[in-house]
Amino acid sequence: MNAPATPKYAAYICSGCGIGDVLDVAALEKVAKTEGKMAVIKNHSFLCNAEGVQMIRDDIANDGVTHVCIAACSRRAKAEAFQFDGVALSRANLREGVIWVVAEGADHDEVRQEMAEDYVRMGCAEVKKMAAPGGNVKETSSKKILVVGGGMSGMTAALAAADAGYEVVLVEKTGALGGFAKNLYKRVPINGVYTDPQEVGADETAAQVQANGKIKVYLNSTVTETSGAPGRFAVKIAAESGSVSEELCGAIVQATGFTTYPLDKLPELGGGQANVVDQAGLEALAKTANGGAIKRADGKEVKSVVFVQCAGQRGTGGNGSGEHLEYCSGHCCATSIKQAMYFKDQNPDIDTVVMYSDLRVPGMGEDFYRSAQQKGVIFTKAKINSVKGGDSCQVGFKDLILDEEVNTDADLVVLATGQVPNAGVNLDEWTATVTAAESGDAAAKEKKSELQKISVLNLNYRQGPDMPQFKYGFADSHFICFPYETRRTGIYAAGPTRRPMDMFQATEDATGAALKAIQAVENVEKGRAAHPRAWDLSFPKARLEGCTQCKRCTVECPFGAIDEDEKRFPVFNEERCRRCGTCMGACPVRVISFENYSCDTVGMQVKAVNVPDEFEEKPRILILACENDAYPALDMAGLQRMTYSAFVRVIPVRCLGSVNTIWITDALNSGYDGVMMMGCKKGDDYQCHFVKGSEMAYYRMSKIGDTLKQLGLEEERVQTQEVAITDNARVVKLINDYVEQLNEMGPSPMKGFG
Q1: Using an 8 Å Cβ cutoff, are 269 and 311 in contact?
Q2: How many Å apart are CA 553 and CA 565, to the nearest integer?
Q3: Predicted pLDDT of residue 492
Q4: Is the Cβ–Cβ distance between 674 and 645 less than 8 Å?
C-alpha cells in the first residue's frame, strides 16, 4: 500500500479493562477531536480483539488513515495486536498509567480524568510529529557467520550456525582445531553419572567441523582487518604463508578463549620452581601417561600430590597480598577434583590432597566431589603460607579446621591458576597510545604497532580495533540483560573471552552467541534494529545543513555507529545503530532525529499537557522514563495496583542518553513544577541497555544547574534517579516523595509564562 500524500490522523480509544467504568470516554473523544485535531475518532469496548483491530485496519486500508493514536493500555502490552505496517503509531497509556495507579473513589475522579485527557493530548501530539519508518533494507547483504577462534566455543558456535542452515567462516590462529580442550586428558562430567572424568570430545568435534560442507576453515590464520557493519562486514584473513583472503560476513562471533595465568607471577606459591605446575601442566603429564603412572618432568613417578586452589585468584594471592587476579575462574575446583581422580584411579595409594579456602561445585558437581572423597581424595580447608619446589616440594599452610600451622611434603604441587581472557586490545590503552603516537612520541608509535599485533578483530572503527573490555579484560558483553551482546552491533562474545567459565558453560554460551549472530543477519535483511528494539525499522537522520561539526554524536555513540566524512560531518552506519537516540540527546542544535522518535515527538508531548495555574493547587511533574527499566517498573506498579500521584505525566524515552536538555527547559518554561528522569544503573556495573546512555544523561544534567538558576528555580526541581525493572514498589515511593518535596517548595514561579 502506498501512503497518500496527505497524512490522515486517527485516534482509537478503548473502554475495556475497566477504562470506560472510571473514565469519561466521550470527554476523551472530544479532546482527541478538538485539541488533538484527529480526523477519525472511534472507541471500542475491546480494542485489542479481532474486531477492534480489524476496525483500525479497515480505516487504514479504506479511509486513508496514515497516523494512529491508540489510547488504551501500555505501549508494552498488545504490541503484536497493534502492529500496522506503513503507519505511524503512538500509544496513550490509560490503563497501567492512569486507572490502575490513581487512587479509587469519587475524590479522585477529577484528577484521574485530567490525567487521562493529558495522555490523549500527548498521544495525539506525538503521532502528528511522527513518520512511518521505512526500514533500511540493503540490496546486498551476507548471512555468512564469521567465527574467530577454533576452540570448543568456536567450534560449537560454527556447528550451531551451520546446523541452522547458515554458511560459516571459522578462523583459527594455530594449525589445529580444538583450542585449550585438545590438550586435556579428560573433562569434568557433563552427563550421565557424575562420578568419573569423561572423554573430552574435542577431536570428534573438530572432525565434525572439518566434515561440514557449510563451514570453511582457515587454520594458521588471523583477521587483519574488519570493516563495514552487520550484513556487510568485509573481513581480511591472513595466513602464515602470507596469502590474504577476503570474506563478506553478516555477523561475527568472537570465541578466542583464554590463557592461563602465568606461573612465574606466583613465586610465593613456588611458581617457576621444579615440580610445581599449573592445571594445564598436569593435563600434559596425564595425557602423556594415558592412564598409567603420572610422572614428573624428571621422570620420577608421583606418589604424593597437593593441589592448591585459588592460586593467584580472588585477589588473595598466596600470601594474602591482594595481588594477581581479582575474580574466581569458576572451573578450577571441579578441575582439581577431576585431576585428583587421575591419581586415585591409577593408584589408590597415592597421597592426594586438595587445599582450598572455598570449594565451589554447585549442582551435580556435588556428586563429583563426593565421588572423589570416596576414592580417597583428601580435602583440607587451608590458608597457604608458602610453597617450595624441588625434588621434595614443601607446602606450608594453616589448617583452618584444626587451627594449627602445618608443613607437608609432596612429589608434585599443582596450582589452580585462573583464566586470562584473549579479548584483544584494551581500548583505553589503545586510545592513550594512539593519542601519544599522533603527537610524535616514538615509544608510543612502537607500542601501537605491538598492540596492533594482539588485536583479534582489527576493526577499522574510530573507537578502536577490538571490543571494549571490562576492568578484568573480558570482552564487554551485556551479561545482565543480553548475554553475548557487545557494544559492537553484530559482533558477539562467547566462552571464556566473555567471562570465566568451564567447558560445558562455554559450549552452551557459544550456541547462544551463534543464535544471536543469526538474529543479527536476519534483522539486517528486514531492515530492523538490533536489541533491545529488535522490531524497530527507524534509523537516524541528520540535517547536515544545520550541523556544527561538534563531533559530540560521534564521540558519545556507545556503539561506534557514527563516523565522519572528509568534511567532518557525521556518517551513520545504520546497521550498527541500536536506536538508543544518544546521538539525538547529544546534538546541541537538534539536527538528528528518527522517523518515529525525535526532539519534536517528545517536545510536543511536553507542551501538550494542560498545566494548571498556581491557584488551582494541582502541580504538574514531568517524568522521562527509560523504556527498558523505569517504564516497565511503572507498568508493574500499575499491575499491582500501587498508587502514585495523579499529578505526574510520564513520557517513555528510549534511553536517558536520548534526553535533550531542551525538553527540560521547555517543561520548566511551560510551568511544570518539576522534572524527574528515571534511568538504568550507570557505572562499572552498569545495567543500561545502551551501555553509556544513563551515564551520559547524568553528566548532561549535572550542567543544568546554571539554567535553573537563570530561571530562578531550585536545583531540586530536576532530579535523576536510577531505577531497575524490578523496582515497582520503589518507583512509586520515589514519585510520591518527590511530589511531597515539590509541594513543600511551592508552585513553580514560571506558571503562567509558558
Answers
A1: yes
A2: 13
A3: 96
A4: no
Lookup result for grid cell 591409577? 346
Cite the beta strand spans of 73-160 per DSSP E: 88-93, 145-148
CB neighbour class for 8 (10 Å; exposed up to 12, middle 13-18, buried from 19): middle
Among 233-242, 284-293, 566-575, name the one with the lowest average pLDDT: 566-575
Cell numbers describing residue 131 = 513518520
Q: Alpha-carbon distance 493 to 478, whole Å?
A: 10
State how far the alpha carbon of 600 is from the alpha carbons of 129, 526, 604, 736, in Å.
6, 27, 6, 29
Neighbour order of strands in the sheet with 88-93 = 40-44, 9-14, 67-72, 88-93
Interval 12-48: pLDDT, tens:
999 999 999 999 999 999 999 999 999 999 999 999 9
Q: What is the pLDDT of residues 72-128, one digit of tens each?
A: 999 999 999 999 999 999 999 999 999 999 999 999 999 999 999 999 999 999 999
3-state secondary structure of 140: coil
Long-range Cβ pairs for the range 714-717 (8 Å, 24+): 714/745, 716/674, 716/741, 716/745, 717/668, 717/673, 717/674, 717/675, 717/742, 717/745, 717/748
SS3 content of the chain, % helix, strand, coil (to 5): 35, 20, 45
Phi and psi dihedrals of 430, rounded to 5?
A: -60, -50
What cell does 243 get?
Answer: 596469502
Find, among 458, 511, 512, the residue nearest to 485 by Cα.
512
Radius of gyration of the chain (CA): 31
pLDDT tens per residue across span 671-709: 999 999 999 988 777 788 888 888 888 888 877 777 787
Q: Is 179 exposed, middle or buried (0-12, 13-18, 19+ CB in 10 A)?
A: buried
User: What's the rounded Cα separation, in Å, for the pair 611 and 661?
Assistant: 20
CB 124 within 8 A of CB 35: yes
3 state DSSP class of 678: strand
- 159, amino acid identity: L
Q: Are 218 and 247 in contact (CB under 8 A)?
A: no
d(C-alpha 406, C-alpha 395), whole Å: 8
Cα torsion 226, 232, 238, 242 to 10°: value is: -120
* Under 8 Å between Cβ of 465 and 452: yes
**How far, in Å, are 230, 494, 614 from residue 506 at the CA level?**
24, 7, 62
Q: Exposed/middle/buried for 402, CB within 10 Å: 0-12, 13-18, 19+?
A: exposed
- pLDDT recorded at residue 287: 96
Query: Domains in the chain, start-ordered, CATH in brackets?
Result: 1-132 (3.40.50), 145-257+467-526 (3.50.50.60), 261-418 (3.50.50.60), 541-589 (3.30.70.20), 611-754 (3.40.50)
CA-based max dimension of the chain: 94
Structure confidence at residue 749 (pLDDT): 86
> Are the CB atoms for 419 and 258 separated by under 8 Å?
yes
Give CA–CA dist 683/706, Å, rounded: 25
**What's the rounded Cα separation, in Å, for the pair 69 and 7?**
13
Q: Which residues pair with 254 in a beta bridge?
A: 148, 493
What predicted TM-score, i.e. pTM, was given to this entire model?
A: 0.91
